[in-house]
Amino acid sequence: MEQPLYIYGKHPVQEVLLRAPKTVQKIFTKDRIDPELFASLKDAAAKYKIPMTIADERKLATLADGGVHQGVIALIAPVAFLELKEWIKILKMDTNPSCIVLDELEDPHNVGAIIRTAAGLGASGVILGKHNQSQITGAVYKASAGTIAAIPIIRVANINDALLKLKDAGFWIAGLAASATETLWEGEFNSPTCFVIGAEGKGVRQKTREHCDFLFSIPMAHTIESLNASVSAALALYEWRRSKE
């Protein structure tokens, strides 16, 4: 069973209060924070009847598990993951949507940054596995600047089964791989596209590659080996977005 989650930092807490205030169960602040920030938190707490309390630095550090909390923490309801089949039902495939599939990423900062980029560029969802994958934590929320509340997050038991279902729904599957001979610049993203982002250091797993319709590399100077997962995802989504303009 999913547990409530402590999220921390000015932007993540403000974002969740803006987009999903009913999920916030309690707000914690230190006694001295920016007066304007405190006033906005107090107003939101009063409006949505959220308990708000002053906590000392030790308490805040414990709740944030050592993360940079900026004096603001919120306890929120468990993340509301969507079921893949329900998410597919609500998609408008004629709008040429995109989504991101995370193939066993372990770094919460990469996961959060990818979610933020996906939300910012208009992707329709982010899909992650239940196993061997960084889950949605306070660190992920912080790295996403709270945008987890702005985009559907879908969690599946098996990534490869999910790719098959996405194909059946009309998506083309594009994996990012440094060894691919075809570059991202050569891709034509004029159909619903799912970008698969591989794990840090390991890349997209071989079995998952076999489910990809295309493998793309990112053009790089010969002196640089590769980019990290979140930057690669951002470049792929920018190419998709550019194709829609």
Q: What is the typical, i.e. mean, pLDDT?
A: 91
Order of the strands making up the biggest sheet:
7-6-5-9-8-10
The parts where pLDDT drops under 50 for at least 5 residues are none
Global geometry: elongated
Structural class: alpha/beta
Helix % is 25-40%
How many independent structural domains? 2
Number of helices: 9
Content of β-strand? 15-25%
Please give the number of β-strands: 10
Oligomeric composition of the shown chains: single chain
What CATH calls the topology of the largest domain is Alpha/beta knot
Largest β-sheet summary:
6 strands, parallel
Instruction: Return Rg in Å.
Output: 19 Å
**Between the first and last Cα atoms, what is the distance in angstroms?**
42 Å
What can you see in these coordinates?
36% of the residues lie in helices and 19% in strands. It has 245 residues and is α/β, with parallel strands linked by helices. It has two domains: 5-76, Ribosomal protein L30/S12 (60s Ribosomal Protein L30, Chain: A); 84-244, Alpha/beta knot (3-Layer(aba) Sandwich). The strands form two sheets. It has a six-stranded parallel sheet, sandwiched between helices. Strands 1-4-2-3 form a four-stranded mixed sheet. Helix 6 (138-143) links the parallel strand 6 and strand 7. The longest helix is centred in the last third of the chain and has 16 residues, at 229-244. The radius of gyration is 19 Å and the shape is elongated.
